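_Per-residue structure_
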Amino acid sequence: MKFLTPQPSLTPAGTPHAKTALIGARDDAEAVALWLAEHHDSPRTLASYRKETERFLLWLAERGKSLSGVLREDVLAYQAFLADPQPAWRWVGPSRPRGHAEWKPFGGPLSAASVRHSLTVLGALFAYLNDAAYLAGNPFRLKKRRQAAPRAAGVERHLDRDCWQAVLAALDALPAGTPRERDHAERARWLFALLYLSGARRSEIAGAKMGDWFERRGRWWWRIHGKGGVVADVPVSDALFAALVRYRAGLGLAPRPLPGEDVPLVCRVTGQGARRFAPLSDKAIYLIVKTVFARAVEVAPADKRDTLAAATTHWLRHTAASHQLDAGVPLLLVSQNLRHASLQTTRRYLHSEDDARHDASRGLDWRLPEP
């Protein structure tokens, strides 16, 4: 399977829109490549958009269609395909590097959220090419109009203290009988400390390097490259820095990160070879966290097991916010640490406000007090 190479079935120059087009693309491959180039300053966004457009172009090529020939029926067919890529032997396979002979576009059926993300990305691609007068319509924008479902009130999913204690117990009980098991256990401990004490997203961790940590005025900071290319400095607590020192010792590194050090913040367990400091992918981070949650289920109280079984990596970000607010960290500071666009987003984790509101209302009675 090839990507972004001109093919006879793709839209050639000289279409009805070519006279007024704002881009000089000669075919679909060049048009998509130009759109992707607009996102060069956000590597994670670029990687996500490239993956989604590559899958779509491969699917179109099998149907002998160009971008200009995509109809609403094709969009609906592709939506169904994403939920069940068939034939599986051609489209689905284990994770492999992009240039590997056994590489496949999918690791399995996409979740409903991932399907929506894919269609959103492709809708943005078509909107861009419409604005450039390369295309004359956007079938991704045609949809059944309906009222938006009301957003559920209250805090997003997080782990309460009993659940968190079960997670800590699971980390302490990880097997460490061999050097490799110890390496895996140390990495898991470091990863959970990083996710919980920083509130970072797993994609931010996957792309981070040791050199992103720096000292200023006697305090350590982590410069995070976040969503939408936003860069922010997040304070490093004493406990988090101690966890880093412990992890670096296991890697045979000096206790303190050096400016510009390009060792990944979380590394694969690879031994002493040339790829000793290979970065860990965000998918691998997700799987490690889920594995620890599964172990935590085994030691958790019965009424907490369903919660831990459902928990994902992002729950640790929610948990970080909840626990920081419970510990008395001011709302504004927690919002800044998690890089929320609005204080209202952070406020959802402030359980004390709900508790106070409930306590104040608890004594209300439908019988009026005696005068």
In short: The first strand starts at residue 213 and ends at 216.
